[in-house]
Automatic annotation (TrEMBL):
Belongs to the zinc-containing alcohol dehydrogenase family. InterPro entries: ADH-like_C, ER, GroES-like_sf, NAD(P)-bd_dom_sf. This is Enoyl reductase (ER) domain-containing protein. Residues 9-320 form the Enoyl reductase (ER) domain. Pfam families: ADH_zinc_N. Gene3D superfamilies: Medium-chain alcohol dehydrogenases, catalytic domain, NAD(P)-binding Rossmann-like Domain. Its cofactor is Zn(2+). It comes from Cohnella abietis. SUPFAM superfamilies: GroES-like, NAD(P)-binding Rossmann-fold domains.
Length: 332
């Protein structure tokens, strides 16, 4: 079996054997794996010593461990949080969910990114009738905006790349999408309560913009919330923050359970009454949104690549970000 590996910032293919399947694990023959440009290009830029990239994929279950009850061989499953740029995925049972036949596997392949988007909205704590502004409309920002839109929030979104703004408009006809500062200022004035600003800003942009947090404070109403989803520099003007008593929150990955070995590896779930939305339940919620056609992923898919083309795919999303959005590795 083959998989992608990044050594010292250079992607390559290697042969591997998946090993013995554990009681709490699922072995899946990969169909598609989604590329997460922000995370994966960061590995290349930082010259990571050893990384197995990918964390979002879909495939056909080949075998299940003895403690796995919700999946069976031959069934399609989506996975999150384990290396997916591989011909075989071995996933913990809580990080793999069934995919109905009515769901397009290409859309299901973005389940990891969808899980992160859903958790970001939960961190935002946006209530019915409130407004949110999504800053940065890469694939993750697009999904954050669409999940908020599906939940009937008043959605504003902005990205300087017009191609991304057009896709957002196509997927969310009643949202307010801006591709310039002037357009955004006008929309904030027209579509927020008294023109006083949105209830929450979700920062899904990367890069090194030292002014982004200060700008976000300006887009908020008094005592609004900022959720950091991407990787902006956490630099802000203390007086601006104080003047509105802004609440800044971090959204970490896909939700409760992430990086908890007892949950992820040992298979011990959190009680529903204490932790309503674990990363596994958020993963299942993303598939439900697809099944009910409440979000649209296909319009965002711009290219498919083979495993052996991973280097070219990375070059493409680095050099032509305006031309690429949803990128898939077609494996099975």
């Amino acid at each position: 079996m083959r998989r992608v590996v990044v050594r010292d910032g250079v992607p390559a293919l290697e042969d591997f054997e998946p090993g013995v399947l554990g009681d709490n694990e699922v072995r899946i023959l990969t169909e598609y794996s989604a590329i997460s440009p922000g995370t994966e290009l960061m590995h290349l830029r930082n010259k990571a010593a050893l990384v197995l990239p990918g964390y979002s994929g879909v495939g056909i279950v080949e075998a299940v461990g003895g403690a796995v009850e919700h999946l069976r061989p031959g069934q399609r499953a989506a996975v999150y949080g384990v290396p997916t740029h591989s011909e075989i995925i071995v996933a913990p049972k809580h990080l793999s969910v069934p995919v109905p036949d009515s769901v397009d596997p290409r859309e299901a392949a973005f389940a990891g990114l969808g899980t992160i988007a859903i958790h970001a909205l939960r961190q935002a704590d946006v209530h019915f009738g409130e407004s949110l502004l999504v800053v940065g409309l890469g694939i993750l920002g697009q999904l954050v905006a669409q999940v908020g839109y599906a939940a009937s929030s008043i959605v504003l979104a902005t990205d300087k790349l017009e191609t991304r703004s057009r896709v957002a408009n196509q997927c969310m006809p009643s949202a307010y999408v801006a591709s310039s500062d002037e357009m955004l200022a006008e929309q904030l004035k027209k579509h927020t309560e008294g023109g006083q600003g949105v209830d929450c800003v979700l920062l899904c942009a990367g890069g090194c913009n030292d002014t982004l947090l200060d700008e976000s404070i300006g887009w908020l109403r008094d005592r609004g919330r900022i959720v950091i989803v991407g990787v902006p520099n956490p630099i802000f003007n203390r007086n601006a923050l104080f003047s509105k008593e802004v609440d800044i929150r971090i959204s970490r990955a896909g939700g409760p359970g992430r990086y908890d070995e007892i949950y992820e590896k040992a298979g011990v779930d959190y009680p529903l009454g204490y932790v309503r939305w674990t990363e596994g339940r958020n993963l299942a919620a993303y598939i439900r949104l697809l099944q009910e056609k409440r979000i649209k992923v296909n319009p965002m898919i711009t290219s498919e690549w083979s495993l052996s083309e991973i280097g070219e795919a990375y070059r493409r999303c680095s050099e032509a970000p305006g031309d690429e959005l949803g990128m898939l590795l077609k494996i099975g």
